[in-house]
Amino acid sequence: MTEGSDTSSLVAANAETRSLRVDFYVLDEPSAAARLKLACRLAEKAYLASQSVLVWHTDPEELRIFDEMLWTFSDGSFVPHELLSAAASALEAPVLLSAGMAPSRSVDILINLAAEVPPCLAQTQRVAEVIDGDDARRRAGRARFKTYRELGLQPASHNIRGE
What we know:
Strand content: 15-25%
CATH architecture: 3-Layer(aba) Sandwich
Order of helices and strands: HEHEHEEEEHE
Oligomer: single chain
Strand order of the largest sheet: 3-4-2-5-6-1-7
Number of domains: 1
Number of helices: 4
Shape: globular
CATH superfamily: DNA polymerase III subunit chi
């Protein structure tokens, strides 16, 4: 959501969001690659804990890069994942990647890489927002933080130093 956007549709669609946990992971470096790598680590950690994950993005090209990174971000890592699409019927991978399409099932964790609050908050228990030091992404992150607060949530922030 951008500043000044109407959040009433989110509130109406997500009447039970008050139990939703929202964590902002804020990197100090302005690097899209570092942001995607952190998202890979979060997805891997959730997968290893037997949690289902939706990685939400509205940029198909950056999601394609993220898809490739899931195979290469760490030696020996294996994160089974699938791209959510209209053609796919019953996806069973524990990690789903979406370029703006809501899943048909609930997930434990939604990792948001998009500039706006995802419209499918009711389908998760936890949101992980991943932000790097890029000015535009920081501004978008602040707007999302504000939106979550307007929804009655108490987002937590975690500052992450570059590797």
